[in-house]
Amino acid sequence: MKKWMISAVVAMLALSACEKYETVKTVDTDFVRNYDKFWTLVDENYCFLGTKFNNDKNVDWKAVYDKWMPIIETEVENEYELFNIMGKSLDVLRDGHIWMISDFKVYANHEYYLRPDGETYYGDDYEPGLVTSNYLRTSEGDDDYKGDKVFRTRNGIIYGMIEKAGKKFAYIYYDDFSVEISDIDYQYIDPVVQEADAIILDIRENPGGNGALGLELAGHFMTEKTLVAYSTYKTGKGHDDFDELFELYSTPSKKYNWTNKQTALLTNRGVYSTANLFTCAMKHAPNVIQVGQITGGGGGMPMTHYLPNGWLVVFASNILLDVDKNHIEPGIAPDYEAEIGDFETTQEDGIVEKAIEELLKRI
Asked: Fewest C-beta atoms under 10 Å: which of 89, 185, 224, 249?
């Protein structure tokens, strides 16, 4: 389970415990009424039922009800079976922003790791250690951390210098948009960037976090205030009842602006939620190319709902669109597709290699 989800689940379990304690006398454990409420909550509030991409077909949520309600009415004997059926119902939505929490089990959906064919999964097992061990300079036992001679870690951010083909590439790995890059962090990272000929910004396996931080980071690569996306919220019970579009902008950073550096943004299917929005924003940054795999998507903000029995169901109630008003829920496709490849044999990260190849053409 992703670390952002663990934190959210812990917090929600605490809330659930308080809620259960306060309302224990009025909890409704009837299986039929709970499933009916569960289905209705999703039907009226989940934002993608009218537009969800699922092998180019919209999700038939009514068919889910018709399949499972007769079984609940006649066969379900305990809450564990009910929970599992609700989980199977949610599986069809293939949305990583969906989870369900009871006092005995947590459901999470990781189907966004599927390839666009809806049948097979992306198989790259990315770890930042692949890059730090094989591309970045190391101290070789010297404790004197000077200049670009070693990679460093600040606030969970890994950065250092990759040297290849006579050029220097500032490498930055950022794996969590719930962690803010502070001004002090930039004071350490910026000198490496300024010395480099180009930047490799790696956000593979970044599950998201604070949307404002994503737009802020994109601002370091912008020359002017730029419209990068739209947001709209569910306002009614109908599948297509939404508010007017709200514009999302990325504003240039005045202190640490890196628009003069050719930049490769590395992505894979583990890039989700805010990281997906950040990738969408970076499509409008000059001198930036996206290399790797299509992102995992996650174009909605999770909202919490309660069932009569006290369980929590969390799913998205708003939609994010790109500037052409297309959904970013299915993910953002790279400019140059690549995979890690057989790292054990080659000792090379195929996505990093492709990024360097393309950057060399531009510097």
From this structure: 224
